[in-house]
Amino acid sequence: MRRALVFTAALCLAACGQTAEPVSDAAVPAEPAGPEVGSLDWAIAGDWRSDLERARDAWRSPKATLEFFGLEPGHTVVEVWPGGGWYTNILAPYLKEGGGQFIAAGFDPEGSEFAQNAMARFNETYVGDPETYGDIEVTVFSSDSDGMAPAGTADVVLTFRNVHNWMAGGYQAKAFADAYAALKPGGILGVVEHRLPSTEVQDPVAASGYVHEDYVKAQAEAAGFEFVDSSEINANPVDTADHPFGVWTLPPVSRTADQDGETPEGFDPDAFRAIGESDRMTLKFRKPAES
Fold it and tell me: Each residue of 222-243: b (16+ CB within 10 Å) or e?
């Protein structure tokens, strides 16, 4: 009986000039839409980032960190010492698509063979690919450089895990002063740095790689900045900051021996890998609007 009813219905459709639509047991699901082109999610998901870089997102929280610093697509942004380009891979495409400007305040290539090689790699990878990264402006920041960007041009200056290096070189005050000079009035300085517990004594040259949060605030305020806010986005409460090879005992470096190739007795690298990356402060400062 059922087959007869179906046949009759098909005849009726044909008589009315209609064609029976095939019936599917299940609708075909639509392809999931990717992040909106030009969004921060899009930049973080970009296929120009390696799997190794993506694996560190859980420790570096790039989206939450950049949103905390108030990054906008049309901004002019200075990244101080971008190094291997982990954050550049996010910042530069994002700013390119949004009509902003990325300025890399890099190492002085005349300072050392390491700096020369690092900047050559940066220029080849990033400056040499404007289709992906836009027209990157490269400047120099060092102990004797003339600033890090043209005065009063930047909306945001960002530095990721560099303060201890400036302390080692004895020019941390210059670094904060140069950042202040580069910013427009009302501009933002964003700092991420390995955090030394306040109960520990601060080494003036930060040989362990860890720095007191209050020390960073004092340096920024001495340069003229106003403290805006702090965040625990990049905190790691498991990190005790007292490791045999300083912060470099932890991932991603995971050092296992000193400069003489000596490893402490009973050293367990797995224990330090289990800690993960360092505990980090995330601090936001502002150049006063009237300055």
Answer: ebebeeeeebebbebeebebeb
